[in-house]
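User: two proteins, same treatment. go.

Assistant:
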Amino acid sequence: MILEPGNGGGGESGGGLTEYIVHHLTHNVKQTALGPFHVDSWVIALALGMLASLWLWGQARKATSGVPGKMQAFVEILVEFVDGQVRDAFHGDRGFIAPLALTIFVWVVFMNTMDLIPLDLPSTLITAAAGQETAHHTFLRMVPTADVNTTFALSVTVLFLIIFYSIKAKGFGGFAKEQFTAPFHANGTFAKIILAPFNFFLNMVELLSKPVSLGMRLFGNMYAGELIFMLIAGLFMSWLTFLPGVFINAGWAIFHILIILLQAFIFMVLTVVYLAMAQEHH
């Protein structure tokens, strides 16, 4: 939906601010046998993942040993930066972890950057192609990381990797034993049996808190940033306040670039740190 200058306001109807924000916060949902499926988040995240992979692959194919071009130099700096972060946190074989960290960082940056696209651009394109009525009933959220389903899908994948690296480093028996014998240790058999449920509970809380914190941190920051863009667009969409709204939106967008990069960096670093912790013995 497009809120034209002069139609702003806080009313519940007639294109008011509340309806404007609710419309832009609604996902394009398809009902499936497993429950509601957010088509927009999945399609955009998949397209951006393929675009990021194609970009990195293309730069690797065009790389030369001579004086690099600007784009090759940028990619080399990016790769060296990510590899340095992995080297500092992960002291095992980085053959898989470094490419994983690079993939996470670039993909999350691509998804976060969708928040800088003008809020009503999709609605404008849909209106031009199919008309105002179709645009009004078409829901499309452009920021996949502002959808908790996307961020939790990423963090649950990290959880499976944490379990995999724990079992790889300690063996299945060692991993299972650690869940019942740490952090509280005991010498006697009876004491070990008494402490086992408490140890298991604390270890499960620690294990599950990692994907929850990863997913919620990224989602919360990107959702808040998206909501602020909507509030600015809705509150300043009148002929008298349109120009100040443009400057305020531009200022927030410039500041939001830092959030976009910082959240991708935090997600990448925490993933590497969690995997490094997983392969350490108690």
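Protein 2:
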Amino acid sequence: MKLNELLKAVHPIQVVGSTDIEITGINIDSRQVETGNLFIAMRGTQADGHVYIPAALGKGAIAILCEDFPESLQDHVTYIQVKDSEDAAGKVATAFYGDPTSKMELVGVTGTNGKTTIATLLYNIFRYFGYKVGLISTVCNYIDDKPVPTEHTTPDPITLNRLLGQMADEGCKYAFMEVSSHAVAQKRISGLRFAGGIFTNLTRDHLDYHKTVENYLRAKKRFFDDLPKSAFCLTNLDDKNGMVMAQNTRAKVCTYSLRSLADFKGKVLESHFEGMLLDFNNHEVAVQFIGRFNASNLLAVFGAAVLLGKKEEDVLVALSTLRPVAGRLDTVRSPKGFTIIIDYAHTPDALTNVLNAIHDVLEGKGKVITVVGAGGNRDKGKRPLMAKEAARQSDRLIITSDNPRFEEPQDIINDMLAGLDSNDMQKTLSIADRREAIRAACMMAQKGDVVLIAGKGHENYQEIKGVKHHFDDKEEAIAFAKNQMASSVS
């Protein structure tokens, strides 16, 4: 595409060189630059892309988009100065990949918890209805039925637009994506057109990046502030920030709730480990999910599908066919008669939701043994809160390693233990080896009990000192159950 076509989407402060040149690709990573590319220098949180302009030129870049020109400008290279290169990157990428979101209905899901479940279930529902659909999520990206591995909840703007462009080329009519607070703050979604946005909830998370809950809230809210008038804003009335998100949006505001009057009203009628019986807008539906938080997630899915033009009755039938997302309340049965649940819960609120769901089903007839850790090089303030919440709702607690990254596992464990009082400590063990922690919890469990393994869910690795080692909580649970079966047979 000609450079002058790409620049229609931005407002350069100045341009040095010709814009009547053919651009073969765009990159924000100098290592990936090829001959004929446009390199966009962004001021990231880890490194300043302006430092890598010489490297990009050495790889064959013929145009540089940046906020500050380098001291010396090369002949036959075009330099474009903009006020905000993060914002410009998304807009240029959208133009380069043919404005893919003008060819499909894109719905974004944001909030602390529930993003993956809601986005994935909407993807599954619209495939059930017979459409080609795209998905951009924490677990995996999909172009209809083709999986595309993911590294971040929301990819960088170049990768994101390339992916959406592939979806459009493959004939996807809908796409559903998780919109992280980082993505909004770093303007990775700049230039995209959303048909709708869904707000789930907001609790403490990512304060290592945002520093304060207020900054975190503002990042989430900005997504709804930027929605067009033609879009819908579907927000959760059961969260105190639900209507805050909708304060300044131009989009059509609709609500969902399990507790109060709303456009989409839900109620849990029955709950078992096999699923729930729900009432949505005075229609009963049986689903294969447990927990009030999942009832809320399903209600958001129901509302969004209806707002996208589907009949309520048809959506309810589709909901009844859905299964939980990988790593979200995944259940493994032990031959000893206890249940092992694997869940991604890695915030205090998420732990509360999962443990509440377990207690709702147990009704005091079994014990809860929780295995949980916290990620390294992330918000340290939530560690004692997570431990305290796990202790409050568990009969036995094992604090273990999660993804320590570049921290020492025992240091993280100590941060968590600091949140416990003497009574909590009497029922708590710390076992740094996650495999041994899971094994110990399963050895404690008796018939009718529940072992919750929290924090990693779908992840099949442990990240230690920059290296990802294979480790899968569900594999460990299944292996233990099989060993129990073999022992009982022998």
